[in-house]
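Hi R.,

As promised on Friday, here is the backbone we talked about, encoded as structure tokens. Could you run it through your design pipeline when you get a chance and send me back a sequence?
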């Protein structure tokens, strides 16, 4: 009794017109789901894994896929690594399919830059907290900072070994930085445990760094701070973090900004706010005040009859937008000061003014406060 094989497109769960990227994505999901190391002792999962691998192996090959689309499974008879069997060796070079998953799952192999076949580890990132003045945050500035960090040893240039004969090729991985292991029906790449993925072993350690490849140092850096930054802004300096322990790329330095408070201005996003006090007469008759801005002092007219809490706006006098055009506005909040002590002459003037003005809310229109109260209790 013959067993009918499932349709390859059905196995991967894709349409017949699926492109290469769709096929690869579908296969990767199934491979991670049914991989034997995730399903130990599960014969069904292992069979589904093999089935998905066979389907992808056929459909990812243009010639085999054309034959399969035209004649089905019969069209694959006699083709190398065709539908008749499963070739475990096809997994040796499928790092582009499994990516970081298998690199983490099997302890290495997938990521990181490489030099001469060996794996290079990136240096660690560093953080530096920097406090700046409010004015510098608005206008932008440059600041010199001193960073304690690990830098490449100048004698061995980060290798950790003497230049002449300090390094030798690892005899276990033969300089590849990886070892191949047979795990069931799969061939797996792992970082070489002997050389740690470097592909080389230190035979004579550097006399200056004692084989570490790095030395502690203080580095002076200039940080360019763009106009418009705020507390919490992070500036990244590429490659200015810790040096790599084996000659790889350095980490990055993140400068995290903290902006001091300003005695006059409060900042809200890219807008600035300030409070301007005026006396009762100035608010009543109107006046002109001088407002400090980051472009210089500007005269601002306080209109006649200005009420407490009135807000005035100066367009484009706020904070520049970081790495963009335009800037916020400056909002002026008018605070009317009522005198608490009066001289005899001042009091007489205010009494005369009181007698000449209607009491608040008692104007002719009945919509005022006192008019509404009167109507309510009649």
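Update: got your reply. Pasting your designed sequence below so it's all in one thread:
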């Amino acid at each position: 009794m013959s067993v009918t094989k499932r349709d390859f497109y059905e196995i991967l769960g894709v349409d017949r017109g699926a492109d290469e990227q769709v096929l690869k994505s579908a296969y990767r999901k199934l491979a991670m789901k049914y991989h034997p190391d995730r399903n130990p002792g599960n014969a069904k999962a292992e069979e589904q894994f093999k089935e998905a691998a066979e389907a992808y192996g056929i459909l990812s090959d243009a010639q085999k896929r054309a034959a399969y689309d035209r004649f089905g499974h019969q069209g694959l008879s006699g083709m190398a690594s065709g539908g008749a069997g499963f070739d475990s060796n096809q997994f040796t070079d499928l790092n582009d399919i499994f990516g970081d998953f298998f690199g983490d799952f099997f302890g290495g192999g997938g990521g990181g830059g490489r030099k001469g076949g060996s794996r290079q580890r990136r240096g660690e990132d560093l953080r530096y907290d920097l406090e700046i003045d409010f004015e510098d945050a608005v206008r932008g500035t440059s600041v010199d900072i001193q960073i304690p960090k690990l830098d490449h040893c100048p004698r061995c240039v980060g290798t950790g070994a003497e230049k002449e004969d300090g390094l030798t090729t690892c005899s276990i991985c033969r300089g590849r930085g990886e070892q191949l292991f047979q795990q069931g029906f799969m061939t797996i790449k792992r970082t070489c445990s002997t050389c740690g993925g470097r592909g080389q072993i230190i035979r004579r350690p550097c006399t200056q760094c004692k084989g570490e490849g790095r030395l502690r140092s203080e580095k002076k850096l200039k940080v360019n701070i763009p106009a418009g930054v705020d507390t919490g802004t992070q500036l990244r300096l590429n490659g200015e973090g810790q040096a790599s322990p084996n000659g790889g790329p350095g980490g990055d330095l993140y400068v995290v900004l903290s902006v001091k408070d300003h005695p006059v201005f409060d900042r809200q996003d890219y807008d600035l706010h300030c409070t301007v006090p005026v006396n009762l007469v100035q608010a009543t008759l109107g006046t002109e005040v001088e407002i400090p801005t980051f472009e210089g002092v500007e005269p601002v007219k306080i209109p006649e009859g200005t009420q407490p809490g009135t807000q005035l706006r100066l367009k484009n006098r706020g904070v520049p937008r970081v790495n963009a055009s335009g800037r916020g506005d400056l909002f002026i909040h008018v605070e009317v000061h009522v005198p608490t002590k009066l001289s005899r002459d001042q009091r007489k003037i205010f009494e005369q003014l009181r007698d000449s003005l209607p009491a608040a809310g008692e104007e002719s229109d009945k919509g005022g406060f006192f008019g509404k109260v009167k109507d309510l209790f009649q």
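One thing I noticed while checking it: The longest helix spans residues 43-59.

Thanks again,
M.
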